[in-house]
Amino acid sequence: MSDAYPQFPAESTETITSGGNAITVRKNLRVPMRDGVNLAADAYHKPGDQPRPALIALSPYGKELQAYSLTMPGQYRPSVTWDGCIEAGDIARVVAEDYVHVIGDLRGSGYSEGTHSGNYNAGGVPLGEDAHDFIQWVAEQPWCDGNVGMIGTSYFGSMSVLAAAERPPALKAIFVNGGHYDFYETTYHGGVMWLMPRAAREGRGGDSGWAFTDRVTSRVLDEYSPAEVERMVEERLKDADVSAWPNMFHVLRYPKHHEAWFDIVLNDLDGEWYQDRNPNELAHRIEVPAYFQIAQGRGWTMDGTIEMFEKVSGVKKLDILAYPPMNSRPFVDAHDEMFRWYDYWLKGVDNGVMDEPAVTVHVEGSGSIRTGDRFPTGEIEHRPLYLRPRHLLADRPEPLGPEYAVPEAMTQMPMMLTNEVATLTWSTPAFTEPTEFQGTGAAHLHIAIDQDDTNFILRFWDAAPNGKRQLLTTGYLKANQAELSPESTPGNPVHPHSRKIPVVPGEINEYVIRVYPFAATLLPGHRLIVELSNNEPVSDEHNAMLPPDAFHLPIGRKTTTTVYRDATHQSHILLPYVK
């Protein structure tokens, strides 16, 4: 098919009714970019010609899909009709609050013109540049009063940051819920591939996916010769985890219709490919007031949100929300806070939002709210919990050597042979008094494996006396990417993920795994449980809250992992205790 498909529909204006209220819909507006490409957009507002502030939502998921918020109640996991791509916000609510809701298709998607090259158009026109032009065009329309904000969760949140970094004059503030700010960390957690972005791009696992036809290209295929691409593919297929997973094999052999995912699979190390246009690399350019909001339960998104909050230079707020990690689709959550923010910055309503603390944290377990000007909100101290025999976590190390405190091991079979996930577990005794944690931690584990690589997956649970468990945080590391960056500290490890260093089978190494930030109180009678595995279950108490594809690429060969926790090998967890 040609670049002209689908045809840019004719512009029209109509009035619809939602919840008994009339809404004017301006369909298929042509928004010109500086290079001559036109983006397609719909605008929703109250009837009448009065200019209003505008809230803009931009993504490749299709503006038509976002209109489901007018007809579908917000769905929460594990609802089977939860669609992770309906993220632009509650159209009827935006209109009722007297804003114009403008929803646009990014270049190369939906009805917009142009071509999209690779993940986040990394090989084409910067998305932030298009967002700048889109914002300025909206601000000049007679139905807009010249004041613009951004709206939407996840991908839309990332677009808010990319837009703000371009400093369009009409953009007065941003409110960002659940954004992704490190394009490497979006897919590779500690070097371990996360499969959920595949669903968002290709439409697997119930998601609609990107609204692309034939106007998305692979940046790898665009920039490398066929011989170079073949060499890259063959090298990637040497990874046993990749070659054992049929979808990975298929994508690498047949990239057509998988272009963005093909690029991600081929680029499994961090570096210029991801950092060139990373939102977290552009954060220092953001000067407009910025409100960041994130729910607990997916630690890497908390990590990135906290980093963004620390880097932006203007007025800013951070709101760490309660578990679970996935908000509604259609996205109808967090609107109360958003409208207070925008009423102040776009409408000039003195509603007291700026009299409140910069940082608000929901503490899991106790349900308490902590406030301050940073995260953690109070002073913390990293204290060790040592892995001991009999699956214990204790505040003192094991006094016996390895000949007596014999190491323990698990063997994980490839998932093509079993559905069972091998797990080693350690637990504290029941807490006798409330104990609060806030911040990032680390696991220092002495481990030998019988292969040259594997996944290390850590999950931390709050276990109630009645047996109910809730996930608190996680940690991931590819064994061959265990190298630490110079800025690492014992309780705050950082890995560059810039190269692979194969493990010597049978060699005992200390692996330092980043434990993603969290905020929780362990109540009396509760225990902290730490699980180590090479794979993770497709569904359990936590993963049932995630979409079907939201698990990590399993290891592709039989692997035995041996953990040493004795007087010579003092394997331990460092956690951020609130003083």
TrEMBL record:
<dbReference type="InterPro" id="IPR000383">
    <property type="entry name" value="Xaa-Pro-like_dom"/>
</dbReference>
<feature type="domain" description="Xaa-Pro dipeptidyl-peptidase C-terminal">
    <location>
        <begin position="339"/>
        <end position="574"/>
    </location>
</feature>
<protein>
    <submittedName>
        <fullName>CocE/NonD family hydrolase</fullName>
    </submittedName>
</protein>
<dbReference type="InterPro" id="IPR013736">
    <property type="entry name" value="Xaa-Pro_dipept_C"/>
</dbReference>
<dbReference type="InterPro" id="IPR008979">
    <property type="entry name" value="Galactose-bd-like_sf"/>
</dbReference>
<dbReference type="Pfam" id="PF08530">
    <property type="entry name" value="PepX_C"/>
</dbReference>
<dbReference type="InterPro" id="IPR050585">
    <property type="entry name" value="Xaa-Pro_dipeptidyl-ppase/CocE"/>
</dbReference>
<dbReference type="InterPro" id="IPR005674">
    <property type="entry name" value="CocE/Ser_esterase"/>
</dbReference>
<dbReference type="GO" id="GO:0016787">
    <property type="term" value="F:hydrolase activity"/>
</dbReference>
<dbReference type="InterPro" id="IPR029058">
    <property type="entry name" value="AB_hydrolase_fold"/>
</dbReference>
<keyword id="KW-0378">Hydrolase</keyword>
<dbReference type="Pfam" id="PF02129">
    <property type="entry name" value="Peptidase_S15"/>
</dbReference>
